[in-house]
Amino acid sequence: MGIQFKNVGYAYKGFKKSYDAIKNINLNIESKGEFIAIVGHTGSGKSTLVQHMNALLLPNEGNVIVFGQQLPPKKSEKINYLRQKVGLVFQFPEYQLFEETIIKDIMFGPKNFKETSEHALESAKKAASIVGIDESLYEQSPFRISGGQMRRVAVAGILAMEPEILVLDEPTRGLDPKGRTDLMEIFREIHEKEDKTIILITHDMDLVSEYAKRIIVLSEGKIVFDGKKEDLFAHPDFNSYHLDYPTPLKILKHLEETIGLPFVPKYDFTSLLEYLKEVNHE
Amino acid sequence: MNNITIGQYIPGDSWLHKLDPRIKLLSLVVLLVATFFIPISHELIPLVSMGVIFLGVMALTYSTGIPIRKVLNGLKPIVFLLTFTFVIQVFYVKTGDILASIPMYISLTSVLGIIIFIVFYQWSKKYVRFKIIYFFAAVLMVFVLQAYLPYVPFTSYTLDIHTDGLMRALFIFVRITNVIIMTSLLTFTTMTTDLNFAIEALLRPLKVIKVPVDVMAMMLSLTLRYIPTLLGETEKIMKAQASRGVDFKESKFKEKVVQIISLLIPVFVISFKRAEDLGNAMEVRGYVIGAKRTKIDEYRIGFSDLATLFISFVILAIIIVVKTI
Amino acid sequence: MIKIEGVSFSYNRRDDALSEVSLDIEKGSWTSILGHNGSGKSTLSKLMVGLLSPSKGSIMIDGLVLNEENLSKIRKKIGIVFQNPDNQFVGVTVKHDIAFGLENQCIPHDEMKQKIMQYAKLVNMEDFLDKEPHQLSGGQKQRVAIAGALAMEQDILILDEATSMLDPEGTLEIIELIKHLNKHLNKTIITITHDLSFAAQSDHLIVLKDGKVILEGLPKDVFKEEDLLKSSHLELPFELAIFNELVRQKPEDKKLLEALWAYNSKM
Hints:
The complex is a heterotrimer of chains A (282), B (325) and C (267). With 282 residues, chain A is an alpha/beta fold. In chain A, 36% of the residues lie in helices and 23% in strands. In chain A, the strands form two sheets. Chain A has a six-stranded mixed beta sheet with strand order 6-7-8-3-9-10. In chain A, strands 2-1-4-5 form a four-stranded antiparallel beta sheet, with no helix packed on it. The termini of chain A are far apart. Chain B folds into two domains: 15-190 and 303-324, no CATH class; 213-284, no CATH class. Chain B has helices at 15-18, 21-37, 44-64, 68-73, 79-92, 108-124, 131-148, 163-189, 192-203, 213-242, 253-284, 303-324, and strands spanning 98-107, 153-162. A two-stranded antiparallel sheet of chain B has the order 1-2.
């Protein structure tokens, strides 16, 4: 199951000519257990790529298979149900809020997929507690809360649909540091507790380093790297990807150069701290 | 997003492109008035006048370098109107010599024939390049079928095609075409910012009767500036709500109402926030409603501008004079 | 340059968004105002440009008291770039947007043309003068906003979370520009942000929490107060946090600590 891309290409029809957003995409994403970061320069095709995962866009070339459903579909096939299976959270998702109350807005997704009101309410309450929205806020208007809370309500709206795969397009853009950490920890918990596959588009290499297991690098619409994060940062072609090194690696490189500290790659705060505490150097 | 431009401007170097936008707009208004001044009739002089205007318009189009096909495509939205008026004129004008008298049958066979043909037309029209011409041919076919399939008749009528009817129909057809093409030429050869300026300039005399022309011009300018941005944001919201299950194709009517609300409210919210932020930004940059301001845009009226305006007025004068004779 | 004394402000007559805030900003300095969302930093910036008036206290800008009379004079001294690149871009094209402030000041046409070219060049947007805003990236739009403010030739520029909505490329462009404006053009710059890596590069830091100033001083001194910063929902940048942690847990390793500090200063 999961998601497969077979030689997928998509072109935007422009005013005079068409413009290839993605080309020759071949990918295999498991339905469980993955934590993938999709990185690449602005305009490299990341958003276009993930919009194929829930059938918002259909490929011009090749095929995408989502949980067994072939895309593009045959004439009469319905594909709306895929959006419940693959939940996509857009950038600045708080723009999608519209209902009279917070709980109603979170229920909007589940209700569109034909759940009964009672079941939708259950799912909404569960999702609200996952993101840390307290019961006391349920009847409030979604427009009278802080920006950070609005973001969490919007994310809850997708979680309430109980998707099998979660796709996040720069979910922390515009948040303050605490908001960023809080939100990413929510996703980490979902990933670890429910073994859910999470796909994350981001520009923040520190986020990639801290949370992702597998990294897909896009450049000019093509995949130039698909593999483990450890392999990416040690890759000989790394510089051609126009990516920054994550801070822990930058610090380790600096320490190697200045005081001869043996370079052992560490990717997050805790492991870097442990290493620096124990290691002996010249 | 980069390939959306506001309006239909086609870049070019022709004299029409280079004309001052105020002159273009004013000349267009004068010429439109002139065109409508010619009374609808089947007589020679009005017909010839309209025909001459048509030739003039074609010459104008050719001089701008804009492909005729593009200009004629501007007729697409009113193809129904054109056909409808044409048919009405042919059917209802009973003066003049009878050109042809055709018995028409509304019969089982003709009705069936028409239905089958319509189905064929709907299916085949996507393969046809010249869609407007194909449409006219199809309408013609509907009448031809009525003439040639008399079997099992319900009722019949006689279509008398009078010369006057045909002439009047032709007249109206050409007039509407002229008006559309003239207006299209304006929008094809003038950038939206320039059009904006032209509208403001032409409205300026209204300041005398205390119409807030400057404020209206600013509102128009801001609207134009934000249309592509709003379109982009609307598209993003549609996608976000689609990701939550909103699907216009696969939903019932009741659901559709809520779904439209889920698109409208976010757009409104974004727009209200934008209005507040924009107001603050404009205020901080020194904008005071109604206060005097200079303008970065500079337009110079040259010889060709004055000549064009003069010629337009002359044409109007000639038509008025001819009409009163 | 800016003297704020005992300023309070409330949006709803109950809770104070700002409570008895006093601070001084020196001419030619680059000050960063930090705080969590809701700490009052945006309110402060709006007060400084006269979009709001304080319920208590006073604000002086370059010797002028900020009040209704002086508002137009003050608007010639202090400008602001806001967070949302789309919500402050007024003009139909880049050229028109930079011109907007100048048109409001009734600057004659030829002088406007020259200033627009001059300031567009300064922000590297001189090739984009005829482009419409939806053809530009967020970073480019913010550069145009800065050009527009610079064209008004004000001495003080406030950047209110000007990079919050931008991607890292865009943010970097703006940071470089700000450094240039401060060091080479002697503009007094005030940046409002919650990004401490960004703020670390400024001369002077002010931290707001719940409408009050809780910390003030040089970046390196402010960053020592980790607990106070945490309570303000602010996080030390990764490299500083590691440094502080090692100071606590391995203080004897001077060499390591020095090398880490050198990394921090390199920024």
